Amino acid sequence: MIGSTPSKRAPRRRAGALLALVAAVSVAVSGCAGASLLPDPTPTVDPRPVPGEQGNAVGLAAAPLRGTLVEPGSLTRPSLAAKIDNHVEARPHIALNATDIVFEELVEGGITRYVAVWHSQLPDEIGPVRSIRPMDPDIVSPFGGIIAYSGGQDVFVGMMMAAPVVNIVFDYDDTGLYYRADERPGPHDVILRSAEAVNRHLDLPAPAPQFAYGSATPLAAESYAATPTSTINLRFSDERWPSWGWNAEGSVWMRSQEGAPDLEASGAPVQSTNVVTLRVGIDWSYGEVPKTVMVGSGEAWLSVGGVTAHGTWSKDSATSPIVLTADDGSPLRLAPGNTWVELIPDYGIIEFLP
């Protein structure tokens, strides 16, 4: 599906013949050091109380993509997913801390990009946005709603257009939803007016819950065999090796990239309540473009509250959510809050330090 009708003319290109790429979101924009957040018109609600919080859940509902308690009927809008650039020249990103869920994936050249999903909060702008890749339909289809990207190879764009989401594509948009930030180097300069994009599609339903949520310390039971973790070291390639450090004072994981603190355009450190690490296969049938294999199963780790538990992940189809299962067979429940999902290739490095 496409959200903005493609113009009759050929897609606009940068001077010199560029821009078959699209993306998600991640750059600072002039005058937008820290994109403001609009009040939620109405979020969709998971009617189930958050396990462990039942005493506080009276009259409240759970945000579907965060598990946090919200007023019933306050999150009825659709989710917005966007392909976000993670080239060094695309940093700092815009409004990553306002996301509900972020997936980090390997792309060509050993670097990574993000599929970032906003729902509980809706920033005015996000970026920088870049082009689509072959695994992205399998990532975004369970959310429904909207996907924003700059473009991409025809075969990948066709795959995304066939997914059950509304496509908002920079190459095709002539309605002013996107602009290029003058202070950003191209092609890492495409910014989406995200609040306006969502407000054009309030007829779409809210997303279904993607993970199970528990209390603020969901791994406290001995059956999870969770181990204390101060640092999570990950390596996608020699080009990309992010890490997460536990901040006990803030009860969050703080992100670094290639040894340096990862900061938003606002100057705030990028942080997450939950870090989900999945061991995934890579399909090389698209030449130099790696496709993360999302339909299947593999090893999984959930890091929350300064500890990590091992388990497995599974995903039955493109439209199915990821299911996390502990080694004892019980569900791996996340803490209410935002989540980063690290899709580490089967040849990559995953390390948890006490």
Automatic annotation (TrEMBL):
UniProt keyword annotation of Signal present: yes
Name used for this protein in its record: DUF3048 domain-containing protein
Gene3D superfamilies per record: YerB-like
Annotated signal peptide: 1-35
Domain DUF3048: 75-194, 233-341
Keywords: Signal
UniProt source species: Agromyces atrinae
Record keyword Signal present: yes
